Structure formats: C-alpha cells, structure tokens
From TrEMBL:
InterPro entries: DHFR-like_dom_sf (IPR024072), RibDG_C (IPR002734), Riboflavin_Biosynth_HTPR (IPR050765). The keyword Oxidoreductase applies. Keywords: NADP, Oxidoreductase. Pathway: Cofactor biosynthesis; riboflavin biosynthesis. This is Pyrimidine reductase family protein. Transmembrane segments: none annotated. Residues 38-249 form the Bacterial bifunctional deaminase-reductase C-terminal domain. It holds the Pfam family RibD_C. PANTHER family: 2,5-DIAMINO-6-RIBOSYLAMINO-4(3H)-PYRIMIDINONE 5'-PHOSPHATE REDUCTASE (PTHR38011:SF7), DIHYDROFOLATE REDUCTASE FAMILY PROTEIN (AFU_ORTHOLOGUE AFUA_8G06820) (PTHR38011). It comes from Mycolicibacillus parakoreensis. The keyword Cell membrane does not apply.
Amino acid sequence: MSESGPGTQFTLVGDGGPVHDDRLAQLYSYPAVLERSWVRSNFIASLDGAATADGRSGGLGGSGDRHLFSMLRQLADVVVVGAGTARVENYGGVHLDAGPRRARRGRGQAEVPPVALVTRSGRLDAGMRLFTDSDVTPLVLTCATSLPATADRLGEHAEVLDCSAHDPDAVDLDTALNQLAARGLRRVLTEGGPTLHGTFVQRGLLDELCLTVSPMMVGGQARRITTGPVGSRVAMRRAHLLTDPDGYLYTRYLRDAELRGQAASSE
C-alpha cells in the first residue's frame, strides 16, 4: 500500500511516530481467524457529540477521516448500512484502485466488498446511486414479508435476502449476519445510521467501534452515533488512538471481552 498523502499524516498517540498505510492496515486488521462474524462500526462525531452537521456526517469530516474511511472499507468483507443513511448520504458502491484490490486478493478476499442495505420495508428505488454506481452487486437485507415485492422491484440490481427470524415483518440482525457469513462475508463494517448501530449494540453484536472525533462544535438537535428505544451499557477498552495535524482524533475501541481475548492470544 502507498503511504498516506498530504493531509492524512497520522501519528500514533503514545508512540509519536508517523503511521503510513501499511501500519494503518495492521492497526485496523481484523482477527486472523474468524469462526463467526466480527462487527466493526465506523462513525464520526463532533466534540459535543453530534453525529451530523447540516444533516450529514460528511460535514464533520476532513481528509484524514476520508482516508481512514476508505481504509476500513478496504479491509472489510462487506459494508452494512441502513436504508435511510444510504439515501441521506447518497451512497454508491465501494470503488477500489488496483493496489487495494491486489491486497484484498492476497488476503483471500474478493476484490471489492459489496454494500449490504438493511431495510424492513424494502421500499427502495432501483435508481438509487447504490444500485447504479457499484462494481459488485449490492445486497438487500430485508424481511420475509417485504422480500417478494422488493426482489421484483429491484430485479437484477441487487441480491435480496430474507433476514427474518420468528417475526416475518422484522429484520433480525443475527440472521442477517448468518446470511452474510454463509457467503464468506465475516469481516463486517457497519457505517450506520444511529438506529441500526443502536440495534447492533443492544443485541450484543458489536465487537468494536472506530470513532473519529471532529475538532468542532455543532450544537442544535443533531443525533448521536447511537439511538434506539432501549439503552444498554457495553464496556469498551481503547485499542489505540491516532491524531493528525488538523486536530482530529481517531479512536478504536474493542468490546471488553474481545480485548481480553486478543491479549491472551498474543501472550
């Protein structure tokens, strides 16, 4: 991988040395052996906790955040996102250059990770950018009730999967992860939105959080990175902390049990 370009010079806090792309990939590598799905989330928030500025997360970002955003996608098997976030952020598919594609082949991954869209209603327009601007076929994770109409509406633009469990009117995330794992997609990256993120947290399915702290205040009524009807406390431990010349902080937190497991495996 190439070194980080201008505006993306990362420094590892506590170490002080520069962090280039090869080291960045090591810092954010998934566990070497996965017997189940590993769910990583990637979010950005302001200093006062806002997940968006002017309604979009992109308003908080800088060049370093965009670079890390791309790197995390390069390492994942699949990018999972809620339908609402895909609309608001105008999601397209993942596009990678020759170098990242070659690195993915070396890790035994497909050249490009698909985007998997989570939607209970399945009311998606085949003209959405995700379906018209993608190098690989997107996945749609929906429920049994919505599946026939959704598959008919999207046709060949997407592969539509039934991710219901006991309730045919709901998407069950455990079932969704099992569907993805059956396709060899265990390195999961979710980019939100906050409601989907909250469900991963509430169900105990989130293994790690990569949170960029943007050096700005937003105020107003902006949402947090996690929302939902039910609160839950999940103990997390810091894996590392990066910064850049623009004052952004790039944090990686692991679920407490996972951090202990990684420490034990490295001894």
